[in-house]
Write a structure and sequence with these properties.
CATH architecture of the largest domain: Roll
Strand content: 35-45%
Order of helices and strands: EEEHHEEHEEEEH
Helix content: 25-40%
Strand order of the largest sheet: 5-4-9-8-7-6
Number of helices: 4
Mean pLDDT: 82
Number of domains: 2
Distance between the termini: 44 Å
Number of strands: 9
Low-confidence stretches: 1-37
Largest sheet: 6 strands, mixed
Length: 171
């Protein structure tokens, strides 16, 4: 994993502090990973696991499973649309995706984090219910997390024009 250094702290690409470096150890390799090794904070490892399980929840076609990743009063806003607040509203939103894409699969492509914020990059794929067109979209969610790694707020983004193009191309 590529590392960046700022003010004597070593940061991985997810911007989580790995270790503080004393002035005398900077540059001598003390505490640095050996070739081929990576260092990962426990919090980042947990976040990667949660992001993977979130993608699995979407792919399970269980709206309640998707909503369970949010705090009770959590919210999601997609492409600057109306914010959906609470687990019931989030479950209804997931239900809408399942109605549109009965064979929906979501893949976790990447996770990045900075403090209590994270980016969940995903790929969605499935056949549209009405047109039967295969749709494959990339997007991401910007998460604000609580201390239990539940999503307090999610800002979701994807190219809606591209989604419509793919839905209608085979119709």
């Amino acid at each position: 994993m590529q590392n960046y250094h700022t003010k004597h702290y070593k940061y991985n690409v997810q911007t989580q502090p790995i270790e503080a470096k004393s002035q005398e150890n900077i540059g001598n390799g003390a505490g640095a990973p050996k070739m081929g090794e990576t260092q990962m904070s426990a919090e980042y490892a947990k976040l990667k696991q949660i992001a993977s399980e979130y993608a699995e929840a979407w792919s399970s076609h269980s709206p309640e499973a998707v909503a369970s990743f949010y705090t009770e009063d959590g919210q999601i806003e997609i492409n600057r649309g109306q914010p959906l607040k609470g687990r019931d509203a989030i479950a209804q939103m997931a239900e809408g995706f399942y109605a549109s894409f009965p064979d929906l699969k979501v893949h976790c492509d990447e996770v990045r984090t900075a403090g209590s914020h994270a980016i969940f990059a995903w790929t969605l794929e499935g056949h549209h219910a009405e047109t039967k067109s295969f749709v494959k979209l990339a997007g991401w969610e910007e998460w604000e997390l609580d201390d239990q790694f539940k999503i307090k707020s999610s800002l979701g983004w994807f190219d809606a024009a591209e989604e419509q193009r793919q839905i209608s191309r085979d119709a």
